[in-house]
Amino acid sequence: MAAYDNAPLARYAMAYVLAGGRGSRLMELTDRRAKPAVYFGGKSRIIDFALSNALNSGIRRICVATQYKAHSLIRHLQRGWSFFRTERNESFDILPASQRVSEDHWYLGTADAVYQNLDIVESYDPKYIVLLAGDHIYKMDYEHMLQQHVEQGADVTIGCLEVPRAEASGFGVMHVDHDDRIISFIEKPADPPAMPGHPDRALVSMGIYVFEAKFLYDQLRRDADDPNSTHDFGKDLIPFIVNHGKAVAHHFSRSCVRSASEQHAYWRDVGTVDAYWAANIDLTDFVPQLDLYDRNWPIWTYAEITPPAKFVHDQVGRRGQALSSLVSGGCIVSGSTLRRSLLFTGVRVNSYATVENAVVLPYVDVGRSARLTNVVVDRGVRIPQGLVVGEDPELDAQRFRRSEQGVCLITQPMIDRLTS
After folding, report:
1. 125 in the same domain as 64
2. Is the pLDDT of residue 103 over 60?
3. Is the pTM of this model over 0.85?
4. List of residues 6+ apart from 44 with CB closer than 8 A
5. Is the separation of the CB atoms in 351 and 333 below 8 Å?
6. CATH number assigned to the domain comprising residue 211
7. Which residues contact 412 (CB under 8 A, 6 or more apart)?
8. Could you report the per-residue pLDDT of 10-51, keeping only the tens digit for each?
9. What reaction does this enzyme carry out catalytically (predicted)?
10. Taking residues 364-387, what's their average pLDDT?
11. 172 annotated as belonging to a binding site for a ligand
12. Rounded distance, CA 162 to CA 157, Å?
């Protein structure tokens, strides 16, 4: 490494993305796909944000560990992330749970999901490991976090968000001193510890960790030999390192990536139907909080080859139009009206239909005269002619998955039950 002392630390790092979670709070959206494979933003999948952050940060070795209903995720990774080249010292490995260590269990926890693949990771000989969750929406330059890790001589550096103390009980909370050294790590405390000098703020874990690779290998082997461990980073490894080593907090505000139009550091856990709907609908704002148009920090993904979006008919009451909406390639808005909606690839909205405050996943067909308001429509659904959703809460709750905030999730099996 001496010959490259001035090189970015990301050159010597591997990103290891944990992408095996189901995300059960997304209800039927994750019946057939893992949470990281859920669609987001018109073209992308949730996992594309962590992967794009790694790529844009300069990391060229990436592993993705999958487990729950991984086919759509693996297919997406193969189609959209296959451009890494070994002759450029790049690598991209997909690591499904495959009983590589024992014939009687899959990945037991997040730490075990790394431990079972240690031989693969070690074969690349990275100096640092950047461990990432694959299910959050944010833009972050991991190089800054790597630099802090080295400068402070930490055993682990943990990415942290500053949140109102009253909202921190649902997270893993860091109790830190004035130098951001972590004194204790508390999982979902009833009384979260405040940040020094900020009594109304708390630091919560983003599920992002930086380790020196050899230190992590030792900790994973120690944890694997512990019969009392659940083999989870948040429950086992991180508390152990906090108590027996040096754990340091890295504030997201120091490394978040913002364009000129983004006023605040953006991070979202889109783990519920309401949060998922809101984060997608927010993209239709005149100046959205998340800038997907920033060419300096692109969100890479698999982009289908499609014709441009098309708007047809220009008659009173039958005019193809979209107001404050995002419409992806391959969509046809045929004599219908969209308001504050996001259409993914290949959606067709037929004549006299109205779609408002809607997140419509790829290849949905909205029948004539349908009225959809405050909905998430799963991929490939065929909305019957004249169907009305979002105007009668009691009827909606009987037919569809209606959230606490009144958003209806619509899937094809739900539609089939209506017509059976």
Report:
1. yes
2. no
3. yes
4. 299, 301
5. no
6. 3.90.550.10
7. 378, 380, 381, 382
8. 999 999 999 987 788 899 999 999 999 999 999 999 999 999
9. alpha-D-glucose 1-phosphate + ATP + H(+) = ADP-alpha-D-glucose + diphosphate
10. 98
11. yes
12. 16
pLDDT for res 3: 46
Please state whether 69 falls in left (phi above 0), alpha (psi between -120 and 50) or beta: left
CB atoms inside a 10 Å sphere around CB 60: 19
Section 132-138 average pLDDT: 94
Backbone torsions φ then ψ of 219, nearest 5 degrees = -70, -40
Q: 303, 386, 378: which is closest to 351 by C-alpha?
A: 386
Residue burial 247-259, b: 16+ Cβ < 10 Å; e: rest: bbbbbbeebbbbe
What domain range is 358 assigned to?
310-419
Percent of the chain with pLDDT over 70: 97
The tokens for 132 are 């990432």
Residues 6+ apart with CB under 8 A from 87: none
Report whether 124 belongs to an annotated binding site: no
Residue 229 and residue 339 in one domain? no
Structure tokens at 274: 């309401």
pLDDT classification of 302: cutoffs 50, 70, 90: very high
pLDDT tens string 389-418: 999 999 999 999 999 999 999 999 999 999
User: Which token pair is 320?
Assistant: 């193809």
In a domain, 133, yes or no: yes
Contact 133, 113 (CB under 8 A): no
Q: Could you tell me what percent of the chain has a pLDDT over 90?
A: 87
Per DSSP bridges, beta strands 39-40 and 337-339 are unpaired
User: Is residue 167 exposed (0-12), middle (13-18) or buried (19+ Cβ within 10 Å)?
Assistant: exposed
**162 in Cβ contact with 278 (< 8 Å):** no
Q: Beta strand 201-212 with 156-164: parallel, antiparallel or unpaired? A: antiparallel
**Same structural domain, 333 and 205:** no
Tally of domains in the chain: 2
| 137 and 246 share one domain | yes
Identify the domain boundary among 213, 239, 257.
257
Residue 376 forms part of a structural domain:
yes
Query: Which of 222, 241, 257 is the endpoint of a domain?
Result: 257
Residue 7: pLDDT above 90? no
361 pLDDT higher than 50? yes
Residues 248 and 327 in one domain: no
107 is in an annotated binding site: yes
